[in-house]
Amino acid sequence: MSDLEILEKKGTDAVLRLRSNKLAAGKPFMINSKDLPSKQSYLEYPDGSINIVIVAADARSFEIIRKLSDKEAQSVRYGFNLL
After folding, report:
1. Is 30:23 a contact under the CB 8 Å cutoff?
2. Which of 16, 41, 67, 73 supports an S-S bond with 50, CB 3.0-4.6 Å?
């Protein structure tokens, strides 16, 4: 395994731990995606639901664009290897 691959694995592992810790603590986890329009992100909640959101004007909350269906949420998790 090259140094770059090792570094990438460490980064991925750290993000997966952060996701797990946030969801276990009852907090949402933000997933940024180049597949969404600018300034939009996925926000995954401990109950398994995922919304598409933008950061609100106050920069302390989110405005929900729409809630994903269970099938869409599962597809997002699959696409980001979060299953």
Report:
1. no
2. 73
- Are 18 and 30 in contact, with CB atoms under 8 Å apart? no
Q: Under a CB-based contact definition with an 8 Å cutoff, are residues 18 and 10 in contact?
A: no
Separation between Cα atoms, residue 79 and residue 83, nearest integer Å: 9
Coil, strand, or helix at residue 54? strand
Res. 31: pLDDT tops 90: yes
If you search the block for the tokens 């180049």, which residue do you land on? Answer: 34
Closest CA to 27 of 50, 4, 44, 40: 44
Residue 13 banded pLDDT, cuts 50, 70, 90: very high
Residue 17 to residue 19: CA distance in whole angstroms = 5
Distance in angstroms (rounded) separating the CA atoms of residues 63 and 82: 24
pTM of the model: 0.87
